[in-house]
Amino acid sequence: MPVFDLTGRRALVTGGARGLGAGMAVALAASGAAVMIGDVLEDEGRDTASALTTTGAQAAFVHLDVTDEASWLTAVSATHAVLGGFDILINNAGIEETALVTEIEPEALRRMLDVNIVGTALGLKHAFRVMRPGGLAGQGGVVVNVSSVAATIAFPAIAGYSATKSAVDRLTRVAAMESGKLGYGVRVNCVYPGLVPTDMGMKLAGDVVTAGLFATPEEAVGAIIEQTPLGRLGTVSEMADAVVFLCSDASRFITGVGLPVDGGMGM
């Protein structure tokens, strides 16, 4: 059996309706995993799950607001019930609010804190409770948190976002240590995606133009490419493949790390 084969694994992907999350769901399913799409975007989430089922994968959708604990309880229970278990969590849901430090709006910053940090922490909490011995699933598993290259570089107008994604790194490392020391049997890692031309990535390019940093979105993207040794943007599938690796037995002795998938930008 190939070490990247995820047959028999059951995954919940947060923010899985579109963008990177949808790409990760597709890659997990292609590797044999059953996938639950968790998102607040109900129509898009159901469409993504439906598209996966047409490929022969087992997939479903559950409404999930990652900032709400009751929503997590519902989503985790639904994942276990519908997929027949739960041993992979992809903590992907996140938002980005662009602002120069002098223009930071408290409410925008609090939204990012709530989704990017609280949402990730709640995901870890409920994954551990379900996956650890004595939990609803009780067979251990894997959590992959999605940080960002923004956690490793100093790029203008992303101070708040960068701070929240740096926190995801710290949550990952402490959670991995707790899981190991307490015998939960859950590996915890994170990835740092580089800029990918999704809706969210292109919104950032437009936002830094609005902030007065670049003349056009194309110029902003060019500045990012210039700082990237591989000389291009990343693709959704490249981010997703890294996640599949961290979920697979190929990474069975890896926990508590952050994997850059950024073309070298954050080195």
Keywords:
267 residues; alpha/beta; 7-stranded parallel sheet; 8 helices; 7 strands
Description:
- This protein is α/β, with parallel strands linked by helices.
- The protein has a single domain (10-195, 235-253), classed as 3-Layer(aba) Sandwich (Rossmann fold).
- The protein is built from 8 helices and 7 strands, in the order E-H-E-H-E-H-E-H-E-H-E-H-H-H-E.
- It has helices spanning 19-30, 42-53, 69-83, 106-131, 159-182, 199-210, 217-226, 236-247, and strands at residues 10-14, 34-39, 59-63, 88-91, 141-146, 186-193, 258-261.
- Strands 3-2-1-4-5-6-7 form a 7-stranded parallel β-sheet, sandwiched between helices.
- Strand 5, helix 5 and strand 6 (186-193) form a beta-alpha-beta unit.
- Helix 1 packs across helix 8 and helix 3 (69-83) runs parallel beside helix 4.
- It is globular, with a radius of gyration of 18 Å.
- It starts with 9 loop residues before the first strand and ends in a 6-residue tail after the last strand.
Residue-averaged pLDDT: 96
Quantity of strands, as a count = 7
Total domain modules: 1
Question: Strand portion, in percent?
Answer: 5-15%
CATH superfamily: NAD(P)-binding Rossmann-like Domain
Q: What is the subunit organization of this protein?
A: single chain
Give me a quick take on this structure.
The chain is an alpha/beta fold.
Layout of helices and strands, plus pairs?
Layout: E1 10-14, H1 19-30, E2 34-39, H2 42-53, E3 59-63, H3 69-83, E4 88-91, H4 106-131, E5 141-146, H5 159-182, E6 186-193, H6 199-210, H7 217-226, H8 236-247, E7 258-261
Parallel strand pairs: 1-2, 1-4, 2-3, 4-5, 5-6, 6-7
Helix pairs in contact: 1-8, 3-4, 4-5, 6-7
